[in-house]
Amino acid sequence: MTDTDYELDDMVDEAELRHALERSRRRRVVVLVLLLIVAPIAVVLAAAGWVWWQLDPPGKPGGTVSVQVMKGWGVPEIGDELADRDVVGSSFVFQAYSRLKGAGPFQAGTYPMHRNLGVRRAIEVLERGPVVRTVNLEVIPGQRLTEIARAVNRQVPWLDGTKFLQLARSGEVRSRFEPAGTNNLEGLLWPDTYRVSENETERNVLSTMVEQFDKEATAVGLVDARVRGYGPYDVVKIASLIQSEAKLDKDRPLIASVIYNRLHANMQLQIDATVQYAINSRKPPTRADLRTPSPYNTYVVRGLTPTPIAGITEASLRAALHPATTSYLYYVLCTSNGGHCFASTYEGHQQNIANAKAKGLLG
Hints:
The chain is mainly alpha-helical.
């Protein structure tokens, strides 16, 4: 083979190599172009799939969770809370979808939801509004403000009894029967069973009780009352004394007559319930207790107490408005069912006491 033949072979090999390289380059370009076209589509499809998953996750929702939406929260805070509680997988998707859908603002409150619920169904739950818890608050006749405040604290988990009591003594909530210069709602809350929702505050509940008292007292004629020279607020005080002393409804007008008769005679009322109020106790007062210096101790002072001493019922209020006409000045427990015996003289009272002792009703 000549040198010329070798040169021709080299030229053929170089041409084939160039063609091979060109084909490889073209394939790479095609692959690159395809990647540039397909990759964004794949990313978009993956992102769309992920978003769809967040909106409506497959499978059944998980366990129940209670989501608390606080007052003042917007969509971002709610989205974070839902994500933290595993209700939704992404706070970002919740926020974006809420804005896209025009959902919100959402009410504060408690929402029962499920884990893995998904954005779409979480928004549906939020748009229905919160589930409002309610409980019964029982206010018993004869309770003092301090006892009602303890009932509030014990029976309504979201209310503060101390705050309730402070409000009741602040003058911020007032009864129409509360005179100027008095900031104490003692005796001016109507005993009843109240349905209290978790949206209510101490002030709401206190106002409801006062409004109920005003309504009930107005209905029985307290507004323009003038009973033996005593106006509405004094009548409420007398009703609270009757409430604290009487066990039987038939005794209430009679006890009322004793109170009015002793006031008219400028006698000390000497009612044990006022001593118990003065010493903040429910136990029978001792002889030492009867000497406790207090404007509420009617064994020490003359006249009525500065405020009522207990919540009253309609029966006690009616008795204070319409006392029996008697000459009685004394009464004492004398029957096993809580009835009282009455007397116009001290001697007659002493005889009633002796009879009660003989029955084992008095110590």
